[in-house]
Amino acid sequence: MNDGDRVAGRAARTKRADARRNEETLLDAAAAIFVASGVEAPVRDIAAEAGVGTATIYRHFPTRADLIIAVYRHQVEACAEAGPALLASSATPHAALGQWIGLFVEFLVTKHGLAAVLQPDNAGFDALHAYFLDRLVPVCTQLLEAAAAAGEIRPDVDAYELMRGVGNLCIGADSDPRYDARRLVELLIAGLRRPH
């Protein structure tokens, strides 16, 4: 390999890394706008938040559904990646589990309209739901197993059941100001602790 090939390879990797960062910035901006204004927010608002032109958004995501699905997947990835990082940086595995479940709750209660767009009769729903489970259930399992191995929680907690329970507690949280799903989920996670 000559110097020209090495320079070209480095440039291509830098360009790919820049493109990934730009797409992440765009997806973060879209997520913020969706939380604030719902999924029907004008594309120009998303573009302004991301610091790009609307043509850039349409080049990456030709339809609103493409953008919504990409935001959903991006948020699932962020939640999945947070689990191991929290486990490595938290004082205890139970603390990491609590923090991760907090992120999971934020994901669930701030989707504003994603659920309406991603209904079971939508052709891509099954694939997205499978992706969601494939990415997040193993992370939750890892956190639960670490907390159980540390003797902090009961060893018989199933990740899917816990996530399903948390999801059920979050239903309606965005439409009733008197209902605090986060508080109930905190009580649920505290209840996993083993009695001393």
From TrEMBL:
Domain HTH tetR-type: 20-79
DNA-binding region in chain numbering: 42-61
Pfam family name, one: TetR_N
Annotated PROSITE patterns: HTH_TETR_2 (PS50977)
Keywords: DNA-binding, Transcription, Transcription regulation
Keyword Endoplasmic reticulum assigned: no
GO MF annotations in UniProt: DNA-binding transcription factor activity; transcription cis-regulatory region binding
Top-level taxon in the UniProt lineage: Bacteria
InterPro entries: Homeodomain-like_sf, HTH-type_TetR-like_transc_reg, HTH_TetR, Tet_transcr_reg_TetR-rel_C_sf, TetR_SbtR-like_C
Keyword Transcription regulation on entry: yes
Protein name: AcrR family transcriptional regulator
Annotated organism of origin: Nonomuraea muscovyensis
